Amino acid sequence: MADAALNPRARLVIALMLAFGIAAVRGVAVLPVLVALPVLVALAAGQARHILRRLRGAALLALGVVVTLTLISGETVLAQIGPVALRLQGLEAGMLIALRLLSIVAVTLALLAPLSPFQLVAGLRGMGVPALMADLALLTLRYLDELAAELRRARLARRLRGGRTGWRALPDHAFLLATALIRAQARAERLWSAMRLRGYGSGLAVDLAPMRVTDWGAVTAAIIAALALVMLDRAL
Amino acid sequence: MHLPDGIVPVEMALAGYGASAALAALALARVKALPDPQAEIPRVAMLTTVFFAASLVAVPVPPVSVHLMLGGLMGVMLGWFSVPAILVGLFLQAVLFGHGGITTLGLNGMIFCLPALMAFGLWQLAGRRWPDLVALAAGSGAVLMALAIFAAIVLVGLPVVVDAGAERVALSIFLIAHLPLAMAEGVIVMTLLRVLRRVEPRLLPHG
Amino acid sequence: MNVLALHKLSVGHPGHPPVLSGLSMQMRAGEHVGLVGPNGAGKTSLFHTIAAVLPAQAGSAEVRGRAVRAGHFDTDIALVFQQAEDQLFCPTLFEDVAFGPRNMGLPEPEVQARVAQALAACGLTGLEDRPVHHLSGGEKRRACIAGALVMQPALMLLDEPSAALDLRNRRRLIALLAGMDQALLIASHDLELVLELCPRVVLIDEGRICADGPARAVLGDTALMAAHGQEVPHSLTPHDGTGHRHVRSFP
Amino acid sequence: MNVLALHKLSVGHPGHPPVLSGLSMQMRAGEHVGLVGPNGAGKTSLFHTIAAVLPAQAGSAEVRGRAVRAGHFDTDIALVFQQAEDQLFCPTLFEDVAFGPRNMGLPEPEVQARVAQALAACGLTGLEDRPVHHLSGGEKRRACIAGALVMQPALMLLDEPSAALDLRNRRRLIALLAGMDQALLIASHDLELVLELCPRVVLIDEGRICADGPARAVLGDTALMAAHGQEVPHSLTPHDGTGHRHVRSFP
Ligand SMILES: Nc1ncnc2c1ncn2[C@@H]1O[C@H](COP(=O)(O)OP(=O)(O)OP(=O)(O)O)[C@@H](O)[C@H]1O
Ligand SMILES: Nc1ncnc2c1ncn2[C@@H]1O[C@H](COP(=O)(O)OP(=O)(O)OP(=O)(O)O)[C@@H](O)[C@H]1O
Ligand SMILES: [Mg+2]
Ligand SMILES: [Mg+2]
User: Fold this and answer.
1) Least crowded by CB within 10 Å, which of A58, B72, D144, D247?
2) D44 Cβ inside 6 Å of ligand 2
């Protein structure tokens, strides 16, 4: 699939363009487009199932917004269930927020989740993000395992020597967190030396893949789509 | 307590980006003036990892979720480095987990970075004299300050149809839900700094 | 009573094929057994299964008659990890060694006494207040051993106890372990150490027990050892003290 | 030209008194030197100082005529860490070994070729796609060595290279290192390995160099070795192959 090979930089730009386009929507008239857009992108990226799974948190949040706003705001009462009134304006505002949220998250995930950490960071560099921040992003992802392993190790070592469990272990845990962090930092320093000793300078060793015609095409299409969305929204 | 995508108008989101970019530029300039910024990177990255991971253990309390924020910790431990660290952490959270938002990245940056810098300032001022007290205040204070900024943004940003009174009630519930978090973060910062003072003073912000 | 009994035990990592399968063996209380085998044979994995860190893929392991269940840890067993850093988690050496006895609910004076004794046995007296991550490689290794000793377990599993030790400390460790009346299971590539400490040796390779018998018979069997990528220890091969010896060739 | 030159070098950890002081020594290109000394003598700290990980407390170190400055790393030096886990940081074994050559900007086919060669030399062929944290202890150690080898540095610092290796792999490692024409500085408690690989040995203890000379003279000097907590290696002491030997007593 052509899309699978989209340049990381292009993906970042497209994600930002579409996200801001969607965020700019104000009226309920274009809501169907907000549903269609992420579906299209997800299908194009071949990521549909993957995204659905990761969308759960955002969906819960969106539901919460809809329910809360429907209950607390607006004049027009749609229905009255005992003391609880469901209101039209709240429902509309809630739906708008919820759909904007879901569709932005879906678009972002579809475009960026398939990238490896290296590609993601290379893309950031390509967009002119300072080297220091790009390095930070890469190391952060790398150290995630290290930190988890450090915590796991400390917990295991603790249990093996008869460490308590349950709520009585709570103070122990705060302490464990602190010592694990200190040790993780010491290890981080050694790992960093190991990387530098093997020639890691400032900046990345991965090449920035050049933007090809398809990349430019996709970026242009995204810009047009975002503008069209905003203009459609303002016109209706 | 991230501001998700889609809640606030796009103009605010753009303004947030502008503000965060300016803050990042300032912080990076400060950082570059340090004697050997490269040597600090592993420590900064490890704390960024902690910050990044902390939000993953989240309890969704719609329309937001409660989780450790660690802004105060970042500020005290990293000083000006906390700004790039937090921004990177927020970006990764948004992109990899759909947590927070890509359009609201700038606003979230303000919600987390300003309290971090406040904590840093507090520590700079009095950390040496009353380490435990200041650590507690920095940890808790950062959460409270973040809450205040968050509330301000939501108040300004929510659609006009929302009834002002109801909005305030909802916000208060949300704020109260976060008070235990403020306490917990104070204790975390204090414990960590205590252990550090004892076994690895080199990593302390104040040698 | 047997301190350790394995019945048709299969050892492996979740989601991977078993590393070892159909292991059966027993250890009597107080017995010292050496566990040898090439890199990747599964010594560490076996230890983790016995210590309830890793679930058994099939069969069972029993410690003092009680079945081992993964995640249910037992202070009757002490495990000294192959990687010293995996085991030390407290800020200072003293706290790390005292962690076990404190959790066993011993009164503080007894804790202090036991810790002092364990540190002395491992040659660490004077380093009590050192942060553990400021110790040298050999000091860390000894700290781990002290942390296990102090628990006075019925069965100690030692994974490469002599790695990173200098010769004086290695000798001290040998003397210390030789004098212990608890059961010891020692995985090591240091065959001289195994030979000195363990009357009985178990050789594992290719997923199973290849030999189980008197140390001198197993370790001295040139054909057997060569077949499993091992060498007969120096002290079992005669040579002339000039430093030249019969180098065997390996695949 | 000297590949390494130390002038009155003091080595230590920030905020602590020096571990070693006033060290002076030279190594010629291609020379293989053994570094021995008891636990905590400062071998690892010295390596870290030479590799620019730790700042020198006084004096200077020069690698190929260039002064070492902490934080300014040089791909002419490769360091194999004592703790294997400190060194492996890529997701898979292949990526980890390829990390160095890729950073040196080599073209991809050359990277592939070099990595394949280094993995083969370390007996790791076939494990390319394994996550590094799923390797056994000995496999991790060899992965570290492969990552250093692949850089083809002028000076390799090996900290306990044979720890955690089984005898076959230890022998393979010895053969590999013996055939290298780069300079090697090898810190090890495995004196037999040092004896086989290094014509010259430096003994450090109590913060200074206690002996520097031909391996056979230093390691064979019973009084000197005993004074510094070491033992003369087996292969330099005659014995009869029964497993009994002259056990010296130590303080
Ligand atoms: N976490 C893991 N997941 C999957 N496989 C693993 C894991 N840890 C180890 N292995 C594999 O299991 C096998 C046995 O490993 P183990 O660590 O038990 O060997 P060992 O006998 O202790 O070797 P060594 O002497 O090198 O320490 C090896 O092939 C190793 O690659
Ligand atoms: N990060 C540190 N901070 C302070 N002191 C340290 C640190 N690391 C090691 N030391 C101390 O410095 C001394 C030298 O340690 P080093 O690790 O260099 O010894 P070594 O010769 O490599 O020993 P081993 O053979 O046990 O590996 C030891 O006494 C150790 O306790
Ligand atoms: Mg092992
Ligand atoms: Mg060392």
Assistant:
1) D247
2) yes
